[in-house]
Amino acid sequence: MPMVDVGAGLQSLGHEVTILTAAEYADLVEAAGLQMLCLPGSVVIDPPAAAPVVMRRMPPAVRRFWLGRAELDAIFAKPLAAEAESLTSALAATTYDAVVADVTFTGVLPMLLRDDARPPVVVCGVGPLTISSTDTPPFGMAWQPEAGVDYTQMTAVAHRVIMRASQRRFDRALRRAGCGRSPVFISDWPRLADGILQLSVRDFEYPRSDLPATVEYVGPVLPDGTAGFVPPPWWREIERDGTTVVHVTQGTFDNTDLNQLIGPTFEALEDLDDVLVVATTGGRAGQRIADRIPSNVLVAEWIPYSALLPNVDVMITNGGYGGVQYALGHGVPLIVAGETSDKAEVAARVAYTGVGIDLGTSSPSAAAIRAAVDAVRRDDRYREAAGKLRTVIEASTPIDAIASVLKRCADA
Description:
UDP-glucuronosyl/UDP-glucosyltransferase; alpha/beta; Rossmann fold; single chain; six-stranded parallel beta sheet; 412 residues; 2 domains; UDP-glycosyltransferase activity
């Protein structure tokens, strides 16, 4: 949970941090030594539902529209009023010098739209940058930008026509919170904050000639996470020379059906004697995994990336932003299969920056996975590109940068 990591980092610098989040994260917050305020039980964001079977046969752009519309409502609009009420209560009870919000926490928006006195508000970009630009296609379509193309009209059509119903539902949520209509499109709401801190490096984003001055790329927050970790009995197997170690994961959120990606990966690589597959399941209740585990596959619920990734040659993922940042922080090339949430946008950036392959679906075939793994093993350019991003990430100091921005905003 990146905001817990941000909070723990700020607290390590001597700042007092309280996190407002769902009760299900209480153990994480407690382990980080942070104070916690609980959101009401009505603020629940479930893993995104898979597209209906008939939708899976549609072109990718149609599927992304269907999924994107549902997720904008579920993540940005539905929880807004309850989040805003909780935040207002917290600020009334205690004086805070600043508010640092996850980009999905739209409960800060009513405070930004009112003229009342308030602390500075800074938004943390825990996913790809959502801000609209003349230089990039509309966020959510996962199209890579072409140099020299002006996307202004395309974005206007997407916002005012294609996604009009979603914007109306967002505005209704704002009215329930006591505000008027949003002056910007849903995905552009961070523009209204005092600062936007992107938890990645500029080299992993599309170039924008009109990037707001409030946006700063601070780098990913990648805590070690190995304290208390006990390696599984098979750990020495991943340290063997001459073996390509492939890590496959569906992350910690969109991981109920492990046969979307983990199962096909087992099938794709089971006959390769020089490949070892390490799968992490995330440990969510109700998961389903392949009945037969191939002999070259090792499975665990969770392994800290700081321990695992130094031994990994290729990472196959559904595109969770945090996991991708960890992989790039270790110079590991990626194969991405994701469509829900912002995962298609993450996959597009992986392909655009040359650090891996975008499979263009959340349910790839075993043949597609095999071809992608063969390509990454054969072509050193993927590892070289990932290595360059590793160098840039290693030079970043995200917690210091976040603290500096907060001080600047508080002093303004």
